[in-house]
Structure formats: C-alpha cells, structure tokens
Amino acid sequence: MNNITTEAMLSHFGVSVEDLKKVLAAALEKGGGYADLYFQHTRNNQISLRDGEVNRAASNVDYGVGIRTVAGDQTGYAYVENTLPEDMIRAARTAAGIAATTTKPSLEIKLTEKHFHNFYPIEIPWESVDILRKKEYVQKLNDRIFELDKRVIKATVALSDTTSYTMFCNSEGILASDYRPMALMHASCTMQDGTKIENGYSSRAFRLGFEFLSDELVETLAQETVAQTALMFKAVKPKGGEMPVVMGAGGSGILLHEAIGHAFEADFNRKGVSIFSDKLGKQICDTSINVVDDGTIEHARGAINYDDEGVESQKTYIVKDGILNSYLHDRISAKHYDVAPTGNGRRQSFRHAPMPRMRVTYMESGNIPEEEIIAQVKQGVYVDNFTNGQVQIGAGDFTFFVKTGYLIENGRLTQPIKDINVIGNGPRALADITLVGNNLKIDEGTWTCGKEGQSMPVGQGLPSVLVSKLIVGGE
Description:
This protein is 21% helix and 40% strand. It is of the alpha+beta class.
C-alpha cells in the first residue's frame, strides 16, 4: 500500500482546495508573511496482557487542523478539532491576530500538489485487522516467555498500532499528504531465583502495517527479555569513578541523542542556549567522526516522508569529519540562518506548532572491530542497555541510566553489571571518543523524545565507541 493521493486526502478531511485557499487567506489578512495548515486524523489501538490474560484494550481517535501565521519573529498558532470551513477560518483569524503586523499581505495563493518518496510502504493496513488477530501474537509472546525459563513468575506484553492521515499546505503553494503507520510491541518479565527477584524487557517499533507481527518477532522479543532478566542475577554494581567507557552498538545511540543531539537543534542555537551555538564550522571532535540525523531510513520509527512543515525528508550531516557541519532546522530557524530547512520541523499533533526535532540520529561506522576497542581498555565498563537519559542543554551535562553492561578488566569483558548511571558533558564526551567501531547498529526500540511538552517517535544508533573518560556512578 502506497501513500494516499492528495485528492483522496482532501475527500478524507471533507475540504476542497478552495477551502484551503480561503483559510490561508484568513491567516494572512493581518499582514503575516507566511501561513500553513496541518490536518491530522490519527487512530491508535492498544492491547496489553498481564498475569496470563488480556487485561486492557483501548482505542482513541484524534482529528483536527492546526493553523500557523508567521510575521517576522512573531508566530501565531491556533487549532480546531474539526474541519468545518467556518471554524477553520475563525481559528486562522485568531492565529493572524497573534502574529499581527502592519505589512500588507499578498493573498494570491496557488496550491500545487507535491509528491515525496515513501519510506514506509505497508502491506496490510491496521484498520483492516480485528483485535482477535492482534491478541493471538500478544498471547504467543506471553506464553513463549514462560516457556523459556521456569524462573519467570510474571510477564507483561503490550501492542500498539497507530495510523495517521496528514495533509499539509502553506502560503508558498505546497500541498502534500501522507499516511503514517506506526507499530510497537513491548515485553517485560519478572523472574525469581531463590530470594532474588529481577526484571527485564525488550521492545521493537517500526513504521509498518500488520506485517510487523510475526513468529520471528515473538521469538526475538521473548529471547531478549528472558536473557536480559537472567543476566541480572549475575550482575553487580561496580565501583564508581571516572573511567573509560565502551559504548556498545545500537542503544548506546542515546549518547548522541541526549548528550549532543538536542544541542544541535537550531532553535536552541538561534536563542544562544546551546553550548554549540558558536561552533558551527569548527572542529569539535576527532576527524574520524561523522554524526547524522536521517529521516530516510525505510520503516524506521523516526522516518518521515516529509516533515510537519512540508519539507522533504533527508539525510543531514550534523558532524562531518569532526566539524560541526549543520544544525537541525525547521523553517523559522532556516530563515534565521539563511539556509535551507533540513526536514526537522516536527510536531506532536495538530494542537502543537512545529519545532526542530531529531528523526534517526546516529554515528557512521569507523573501521575498528569491537573486540579491538575493548582490548584497549585495562579497567573500565562496557554498556549497551539503557532505560532513559537527561541533558542540560545549556551546559551540555548529561546522565544516562544503564540497565546492564559488563566490567572490562585487562581488555576483556568479565563480570556483568547493572543499575548504574553514566555521567558526563556532551561536547567533552564527543571530543573524548578516541576509537569508532565498524559495527553501526540502528536500535529498533520504542524510543520517544520529549521537548517542551511535545513527545515524538525517534530512532538512534551507534557503532561501538571508546569514550576515554566518563563518570560511572556505582558503589
């Protein structure tokens, strides 16, 4: 199934091209220099199982249009939870009033349909699948977790599917539509060994239809969940202190996302908040390092065909050969810096104005095998499984909670470790990466990024890297 045509999307929202022109004209009648409309219809379904039976099923629908007027540095935003022409025009005039200016607007608007590459074609739409077919896979995963280890005493499985119909148009003449699927499955289990109780989890998320669910997915999630939980019985908290840290491939991409990714978002730099606001074009790390934010990875959780401002998705080098090459831009920041938007204008829903946000952020592979990186460390830790992180944008200070990892002793992985914090400073950590592995992995978990009250699906990845010194919070 490919993306729905704009003609079909106009019909879906019950509006005409003439309606769109009238709403845009109303948004500009107070003198705004730019206006756009973002239509959204989202359906979300959730089903979860606990204690051996499905204990929750829920569905919700969100529908409406957000209207933005921009006049210089002033932005007006309003939304309405229907698509009736008179209500949209009323909301447009509210946005126009917020961004009022004395400049005379040009009301000659010609809308032209724009086509984009589809990075998430699907085979079976979620709308065509009933809950019993979904429940089958939820139950399979639960049963398989219990089969794998007799120490399992509890399992929780959750499945969520979302489809969003979106349509965008603006006063520059762009008219585009998109059909955005999302699927995620999460499993956790509790195991008891004697008097010890431990917990573990695994998850996957993709922009896919019902074909997302398979026996292979069930087996992978079950194996990972049980293996991680079993490892926790052997794990200890290491002694804390400053030491070398090898970040394993995949989920360690949280280092990029939290420690430096947010600081590369152009709004923070335009406002002078980011620690990187004066470093564009400057060397900030080793020349072997290339950091990318990419919206074009097929079926990835953070993939987009176009951003929420009608800008085509693209692959953006934030850091190229160790040099800060580009910030992540929406239309407003791009105009400020006199550059082209990078396709990073994203919003949680039609109720929110877009802002610069990451998509899939990763570091490109180097040329060193992971075992050689580990062999360089006499005493340190290897970490590869994270639950969350936080960063202070201005100072660049960050902390991550590490669920599992290993001690490194004399160049070898030895004792498993658990429940530690890794603490550092983003720019310093980036500068302290001395070795980059040849094993880039894009993590496929259910990563969600929060910023200024808005949550967005994102992805991240990393090859194994050696950070020469970070603070490890242990015993």
